[in-house]
TrEMBL record:
Residues 92-279 form the THIF-type NAD/FAD binding fold domain. This is Sulfur carrier protein ThiS adenylyltransferase ThiF. Pfam families: ThiF (PF00899), ThiS-like (PF14453). It comes from the Bacteria. One of its GO terms (molecular function) is nucleotidyltransferase activity.
Length: 281
């Protein structure tokens, strides 16, 4: 049968993972040279179709296997399948041509972008006109060394350190009704992550106008330290979704902090994956 090991196609007569492991160690097998070259003969993590296994499992046609040796920096050519290893093959297929936009790179946007980069969305379009300030560090995915940098560049550098196979397109511009459709033209899904009411109203309006051919995921209500269980995801209109508790906005005495902001951001990021997979809310 045909299987894929760390992104490379092989054929095997093995019918189980235990049989395959024995074949790996046979110096006459066609696996051995590949595994030896990439220091994977003694790999101690065996991932089958996104799930790490230790016991014996039956093999099926086109199974995807990833081998990882703890503490060893892999060659770049096999790093990509290692990063993707915990996804199912179906999800990786959905991600490989996906393009997602993030409007605003503050507490919501920086967390959304990092989560989507970690899971392996092929292309991200990131938009923000602002720079990193010290007060951003309580909830946004930036470091002290980023203070004074454009948020677009700071986040792009972080994503390169996390998943260098994600294509990141940045725009340092203030989004409005006149430019938003052009900026996000390549995207099928847009995550709204603005920190001001006028911009949120703008994208809500454009969701039914210039962005009508895209899915738009907005957020409302994630301030304070109220229960995380209040944050939810709903479908609001044909192509418009809302994440949050819909009531607890940021105001004096009720600030935005990392835990609830990140919960809401990851509601948005998870909905991106569901939509890419053809699932509903």
């Amino acid at each position: 049968m045909n299987i894929t090991i760390n992104g490379v196609n092989f054929s095997t007569n093995a019918t189980s993972t235990d049989e395959l492991r024995r074949e790996f160690l046979d110096k006459n097998s066609h696996f051995y040279e590949f595994l030896d070259k990439n220091e994977l003969i003694n790999a101690d993590i065996f991932i089958l179709n996104g799930f790490a296994i230790k016991e014996n499992f039956a093999l099926n046609e086109n199974d995807k296997i990833t081998l990882i040796r703890r503490g060893v920096m892999p060659n770049l050519e096999i790093l990509k399948p290692m990063i993707e290893a915990r996804n199912t093959p179906e999800l990786n297929n959905a991600l490989k041509n996906a393009c997602v936009g993030v409007a605003g790179l503050g507490g919501l946007g920086s967390n959304i972008a990092i989560s989507l980069a970690r899971v392996g969305v092929a292309r991200l379009v990131l938009v923000d006109f602002d720079i990193v300030e010290p007060s951003n560090l309580n909830r946004q995915q930036y470091y002290v060394r980023h203070i004074g940098m454009q948020k677009t560049e700071a986040l792009k550098s972080l994503i390169a350190d996390i998943n260098p196979f994600v294509e990141v397109i940045t725009h340092e511009i203030y989004l409005d009704a006149k430019n938003i459709a052009e900026i996000f033209a390549p995207c099928s899904i847009i995550c709204e992550a603005f920190d001001n009411v006028p911009s949120k109203k703008m994208i809500l309006g454009e969701a039914g106008a210039s962005l009508a051919d895209k899915s738009v995921i907005c957020a409302s209500g994630m301030a304070g330290f109220y229960s995380s269980n209040l944050i939810k995801t709903i479908k609001f209109a044909k192509n418009l979704y809302l994440c949050g508790d819909f009531s607890n906005e940021a105001k004096i005495g009720q600030g935005l902090m990392a835990p609830r902001v990140a919960v809401c951001a990851n509601h948005q990021a998870n909905l991106v994956l569901r939509l890419l997979m053809g699932e509903s809310v």
